[in-house]
Amino acid sequence: MDYQLTEEQQMIKDLCHQIAEEKIKPVAQKYDETGEFAWDVVRVLADSDIFGVFIPEEYGGMGGGVLEMTLVTEELSWGCGGIALSFGATGLGAFPILLFGNEEQKQRTLPEVAAGRKLAAFCITEADAGSDAGGIKTTAVKDGEYYVLNGTKQWITNAGEAEIYTVVASTDKTKGPRGASAFIVDKDTPGLSFGKKENKMGIRSSATRESYWTRPGRSETAWRFRRAPCGSNEILRNAGIVATQRI
Fold this sequence. Notes:
This protein has 247 residues and is of the alpha+beta class. A hairpin with a 2-residue loop joins strand 2 (139-143) and strand 3 (146-150). The radius of gyration is 18 Å and the shape is globular. Strands 1-5-6-10 form a four-stranded mixed β-sheet. It folds into two domains: 7-118, Butyryl-Coa Dehydrogenase, subunit A, domain 1, CATH 1.10.540.10; 121-244, Butyryl-CoA Dehydrogenase, subunit A, domain 2 (Beta Barrel), CATH 2.40.110. It is built from six helices and ten strands. The two termini are 25 Å apart.
């Protein structure tokens, strides 16, 4: 078995190191001090087709996988770990769709990610459910042709900057951790909003925020929700936390 990188993987690694050295390292201190999101670097990554390294070719990507995503994240982190997270967290948000989404969902989202036109985020963490992901309190209740999502996600990387959100919510509390489902939520969905950007001690150029849903006319503490069409936005139904841990 050959454990060496392929020629293409080495090219990806070398290119990302070059980007880190020439485009990221010179601005890393500025972005860490200001806490701004490095959109100029994101555009460089998009123009270099970096966001497509882990996306299949049929969706506009390069056909790689987790190893290619890891190589990119490692090299970009050499320049700045915070800026590298804009890429790494997008992979985390996109992989549930890649692994479990239906064809319509993949066609709708993955080409946008591969081209770097849209970033993604993975929303599972809550105030009382961080490492204990089975303790999530966010619910998704079916209402006719829609699901009503009610809850708050916390410390979400890329929140407020990403356009695509993979949200894990409980659809069957009787099944515990196996009663969780995942939904695709677009940033412009009415009712979806974000809390303040966290003022972190490090990796400050990475956006970390709460994300929550507020019903118009209600205070955000009284009713937080969104409506997601059945089928078109639902990735996993009652597949549970075990399935998301494959990501």
